[in-house]
Amino acid sequence: MVFECNIDDRGKAYRLRIGIRTLLAGLVLAAVFYLADVDWWAFWLGPVGMIGGGAFAIFEARTGWCVVRAMGFKTPI
Q: How far apart are CA 31 and CA 76, in angstroms?
């Protein structure tokens, strides 16, 4: 699958910032859950989702491709 660049430099920078912040927040939350010995699996969906979403936003920034724009929606950034 070829990812066609569909965002500009401003969009790439924005997605990179959001991705890094979300990834770090997910890692911090996972560390807190681990240290607090949270063993109920449903609580772990939050940090796992944040880590996955942050990593995907970083991927979008690096490739210059936005999945929402690829589906035909217009995004402001």
A: 34
